[in-house]
Design a protein that fits this description.
Blueprint (H helix, E strand, L loop, with lengths): L1 H20 L12 H5 L3 E5 L11 H10 L3 E8 L5 E3 L20 H5 L26 H7 L4 E6 L7 H11 L6 E4 L3 H10 L4 E2 L3 H12 L12 E5 L1 E2 L2 E2 L3 H9 L3 E5 L4 H10 L3 E4 L2 H13 L12 H9 L4 H9 L3 H14 L2 H25 L4 H4 L16 H17 L2 H20 L5 H29 L4 H25 L22 H23 L1 E2 L5 H25 L6 H29 L4 E2 L16
Parallel strand pairs: 1-2, 1-11, 2-4, 4-5, 5-6, 7-10, 10-11
Antiparallel strand pairs: 2-3, 8-9, 12-13
Amino acid sequence: MAGAQRLLTVLLGVSAIGLLAAPLLTTEPLERVNHFAEHRPANIAHAGAQGHAPPNTLEAFQLAVDLGADTLEMDLQLSADNEVVVHHDGTVGRQTDGAGAIREMTVDELRELDAGYAFTDEDGTHPYRGEGVRIPTLEEVFEAFPEQHMVLEMKREGGTGTPAAVTDRVRAHGREDRVILASFELDFVREARERLPGVLTAMSVAEVRQFHMLQLFGLHRWWQPPGEFLQIPEFYAGIHVTSHRFLSAADEIGVDTHVWTVNDPDTMRRLLAAGAHGIITDHTERMVEVTAERAAGAPHPEADSGNVALTVWLQDRLGWLTPAMAAITFLGHQEFYVVAFPLLYWAVSRRVGLRVGVLLLVSAGINEAGKLAGRTPRPSFVVPELGAVSEHTFGIPSGHAQHGLVVWGALAAEVRRHWAWVAALVLVLLLSASRIHLGVHYPADVLAGWAVGGALLIAYLRWRNPVEAWLATRRPMQLVGLALAASVALIALAAGARVVFLDWQPPATWVGIGPDTWPIGLSHAVTPAGALFGLGAGVALLRAYGGFDAGGPLWQRALRCLFGLVGVVLLWQGLGALFPAGEDPIALAYRWVRYAAVGVWVGGGAPLAFVRLGLAPAAVSTPSQPKPARHAAAS
């Protein structure tokens, strides 16, 4: 038995060391390329402005530059005399007045073709036919656009000599720092990297697939990206490639994502909101308009701001109240609860602190599941300038309204005085009003929060005593198991709502959504679930090794709180800085561990330390054992 315990201790120790060491072994993110950092989002002209001119021609490239493109994209082939020519297909029949394979034609023969022959304008005419438009060579493009950044896609049809020919010309023209070499073919990209070390490259299809699999499980942090760019379609083989998780994971390791080929302005808005770094488009001018719109913070032209009339009125007429409303709304933030309820548990009443703490965490888990199921916007999502504070989750139900009613209602019930109920009602109303005033909730969100919070409060008042009496008969390990089951249930509830809308994308009217404000995710549900398990495990630990008394002199309570809060901050912020963030499974697991550690410290670790340090007397009774009603508010 002793040997098994030692083995278990060793395994737990090794696991803990691995858990803490793994984040330190992640790869450093790539440095951003200056040009694309300055032009974010990048406006990349697909084969030039081919929505208005024959693709892959000097005319199309010049028009794209004139329209505002910051990068030109083009396709490269090899001619019979090994010249690098700019053309998409391996044959000339689709675009020109000729026929045959490019690989079997010389540059002189290609120059005789009319590259504008097949281009059709929106009115059905052929404005470039017979106008001298030709298939250019790569060197001609370099000479015509000496300062332009370019994406050079090497086509398989050009033959295995394409990478060597392209890199030779890039080197000869000194363009190593202004081109991205790309190809669907892994061997082409690898050869280009070998021949031009340090040249920028977009990852091949095989490398994109590898990254896609790694990011699904959060393993991308330990992967060294072979290229600086992911140039991808929105969907590939039935898979939604450009999910927020994929784009966020790429951003996390310093890789830019460019999505092709996007011509619809609403799709551009949606992809940029999801975190895409650039758009490859046939219509440069549309991307220019979308970028200007985003820079100005203007709502989508079709956005219906009628639902925000109350917020607009409040901010216009009562704008002087905004600082006060921001202060009031803090009373419903996570940071306030993380500090306030450990103090209640440690220095005022163990029973009340534990009751309200558990109730708050359950309410938070249910609230996040409700938000994921509802998927409604906040006013600041539609009209960004209304957002006086920043919020990243969906709107309905309002967490501040829900938690305020649950927490302050429960405390009023413990105090059992009319003034307590009045104070609770006033505080709930102020919290709710602050959310509307600050532009982060509609009135309907608040009403829904009250409905859910009221139902939870009624259930709590009805079942708290029977549940506590039942828990008092459980052994410590049974309490740990129950806490784990409750934690898993909260995550499963949110995950169920999340899975149903796995490929959800925000409407184009939600212009206030960006890579850092993406509402779909489980991290906000994992937080209370982890803390709930930790709190239950901590209380079980406390029961196994003796309780503590929350009373004592004021100086003793103050020292107790100070010492305990130092531990909270070290675990909460310290592990937050060490552990990876994100919405992938590994990041979520680390988040769960982080908040579970905080819960264990609050529920059991800190109280046991208080007793050991002489900051609190030991107590035989445990927080989960019921006491007579007249002692409900004392400890």
